[in-house]
Amino acid sequence: SQQGEEDPQALSIQEGENATMNCSYKTSINNLQWYRQNSGRGLVHLILIRSNEREKHSGRLRVTLDTSKKSSSLLITASRAADTASYFCATDPTSGSRLTFGEGTQLTVNP
Amino acid sequence: DAGVIQSPRHEVTEMGQEVTLRCKPISGHNSLFWYRQTMMRGLELLIYFNNNVPIDDSGMPEDRFSAKMPNASFSTLKIQPSEPRDSAVYFCASSLAGQGAGYGYTFGSGTRLTVV
Fold it and tell me: Between chain A and chain B, how many beta carbons pairs sit less than 8 Å apart?
């Protein structure tokens, strides 16, 4: 089964609103990463947060990590229609050697 | 850097035919991954290589699937014989390896395979 599980599966918002996606995982991790996938394209790495970090920012993206709850959230502020895509979290487990991807959240930003 | 390059972008083949997907990773990356993505099963890791050596092929669905990495700049995924249920988008990704190294993966644009 997938290590990471995203919530919600689908999210529809209006342009300018904030979008929040959540990810839960099961085992200890070295880091957690978020990826975006536009329709018909490959995944694109957005941001990485290490297990000893609690929050990280990159442009309009804000990621939080709570290792005690084994959860992470991705916040996209002031969303744009171009943010419409699927967003995946991926965990780098301490007991493994490769990333495990969740099933993704489909974000639709309506203009 | 041109990124991870996959070919072909689209492949339509008849059931029973051999299919070969190709990938050129980013120069300097020492890990390469093959994924398959479908609506039903999401993103599945098929196999990954580290320094050209297959490390984990437990995701390869059947003996009909094989993957090679003869050198650091090239990998192939072969399906022989192909079946309609193999229809999916196949992605190749590369990365600087190391558990906990903290590097993201760079994905190619994928090969959309349709087996009729």
Answer: 58
